[in-house]
Amino acid sequence: MIHDDKRYMALALTLGRRGQGLCWPNPAVGCVIVKDGRIVGRGTTAPGGRPHAEPQALTQAGAAALGATVYVTLEPCSHYGKTPPCAEALIKAGVARVVVALRDNDPRVSGRGLKMLEDAGIDVTTGVLADEAAWDLKGFFLKTDAGRPFVTLKLAMTLDGRIATATGESKWITGPEARRRVHAQRANHDAVLVGGGTARADDPSLTVRDMGIAHQPVRVVASRRLDLPMDSVLAKTARDVPVWLVHGPDALEARKTSWSVAGATLLPCDLNGAQLDPGALLTALGAQGLTRVFCEGGGSLAASLLQAGLVDQLIVFTAGLALGAEGHPGIGALGVQKMAEAPRLKLATQERVGDDIMSVWRRP
Ligand code: AOF
Ligand code: ZN
């Protein structure tokens, strides 16, 4: 029984992950309905966050939901939003048992969904694969509790940690397999974020390409002064895929106007010294509903996020070439004097991708 619970919950987690990058501001929840050892319904929170996972799985299950066991990665909701509560839908369908990985921390729910189910006489089990679910849903939990999204920092670097030559050349350090993997990683985040220096140097499009994926993450540039060229790819395509610009109090007024006219969304942010404050930057993104942000540098933004302890996951692609001390570092100055001050992460996985190595590190 316990073994089966874990097995079905693992499937629900897989279904939930399919919604990552698509459901914000809502969590990407997965749901599996099992009757007499057969899976009769599956659901993932729909793009945009509604319908929720459970009603979709219930629709699939139909009459088979009566007396069934439901596996859901997050506590079923109890509030009347645009749709009636999922807990109520489960009760109406006559399910016998609900297995939940995690309690919802949304103040509108937080235990009320579980109580509704229990009060209706449904057998409720919680905490199955809770650690896995906490990791998958971390962006939603952080947004709700700390007001900021989950942050993945991705760096594609040489053996000696460089991201460009002294003259600024950066194409290409990693191979096509690694670059393709990055597109898949962009797709399971709500937004892609770069600093103004990178936007100026690379003129990036920051879109997901050649993956058979229609949905695009929001494109965010953090630029204190907003000195970003209006003939850039981002400016020209701001009406096709959203562009959000996080800027300081002293941003150029003329640029603010031009970018607004081009279709970008402007988000003001406080400074910390000469730079945008990384905490305030993420709070501004959390306030817009983002739960998962994929930061692709450059060196200064990477350093300021790391220094502030705001990198939840670091993905490093290491390529087999060296550019020497004159190259641009992937991580800028951190002000570290003592070993104890250095940001330290824990290795989660390591894998060969084409001719490069991908290592994934997590905040302990
Ligand atoms: C569920 N199943 O699949 C999801 C849930 O704005 P609403 O009405 O859509 O509600 C959003 C809240 O519902 C969200 O903050 C979270 O608490 C919960 N998300 N709940 O039962 C789901 N995505
Ligand atoms: Zn719901």
UniProtKB/TrEMBL annotation:
<dbReference type="InterPro" id="IPR002125">
    <property type="entry name" value="CMP_dCMP_dom"/>
</dbReference>
<dbReference type="Pfam" id="PF00383">
    <property type="entry name" value="dCMP_cyt_deam_1"/>
</dbReference>
<keyword id="KW-0686">Riboflavin biosynthesis</keyword>
<dbReference type="GO" id="GO:0008703">
    <property type="term" value="F:5-amino-6-(5-phosphoribosylamino)uracil reductase activity"/>
</dbReference>
<comment type="function">
    <text>Converts 2,5-diamino-6-(ribosylamino)-4(3h)-pyrimidinone 5'-phosphate into 5-amino-6-(ribosylamino)-2,4(1h,3h)-pyrimidinedione 5'-phosphate.</text>
</comment>
<dbReference type="GO" id="GO:0008835">
    <property type="term" value="F:diaminohydroxyphosphoribosylaminopyrimidine deaminase activity"/>
</dbReference>
<dbReference type="InterPro" id="IPR016193">
    <property type="entry name" value="Cytidine_deaminase-like"/>
</dbReference>
<dbReference type="InterPro" id="IPR024072">
    <property type="entry name" value="DHFR-like_dom_sf"/>
</dbReference>
<dbReference type="InterPro" id="IPR011549">
    <property type="entry name" value="RibD_C"/>
</dbReference>
<comment type="pathway">
    <text>Cofactor biosynthesis; riboflavin biosynthesis; 5-amino-6-(D-ribitylamino)uracil from GTP: step 2/4.</text>
</comment>
<keyword id="KW-0378">Hydrolase</keyword>
<keyword id="KW-0862">Zinc</keyword>
<dbReference type="Pfam" id="PF01872">
    <property type="entry name" value="RibD_C"/>
</dbReference>
<feature type="domain" description="CMP/dCMP-type deaminase">
    <location>
        <begin position="3"/>
        <end position="125"/>
    </location>
</feature>
<keyword id="KW-0521">NADP</keyword>
<comment type="similarity">
    <text>In the C-terminal section; belongs to the HTP reductase family.</text>
</comment>
<keyword id="KW-0479">Metal-binding</keyword>
<dbReference type="InterPro" id="IPR002734">
    <property type="entry name" value="RibDG_C"/>
</dbReference>
<comment type="similarity">
    <text>In the N-terminal section; belongs to the cytidine and deoxycytidylate deaminase family.</text>
</comment>
<dbReference type="InterPro" id="IPR004794">
    <property type="entry name" value="Eubact_RibD"/>
</dbReference>
<dbReference type="InterPro" id="IPR050765">
    <property type="entry name" value="Riboflavin_Biosynth_HTPR"/>
</dbReference>
<protein>
    <recommendedName>
        <fullName>Riboflavin biosynthesis protein RibD</fullName>
        <ecNumber>3.5.4.26</ecNumber>
        <ecNumber>1.1.1.193</ecNumber>
    </recommendedName>
</protein>
<comment type="pathway">
    <text>Cofactor biosynthesis; riboflavin biosynthesis; 5-amino-6-(D-ribitylamino)uracil from GTP: step 3/4.</text>
</comment>
<dbReference type="InterPro" id="IPR016192">
    <property type="entry name" value="APOBEC/CMP_deaminase_Zn-bd"/>
</dbReference>
<keyword id="KW-0511">Multifunctional enzyme</keyword>
<keyword id="KW-0560">Oxidoreductase</keyword>
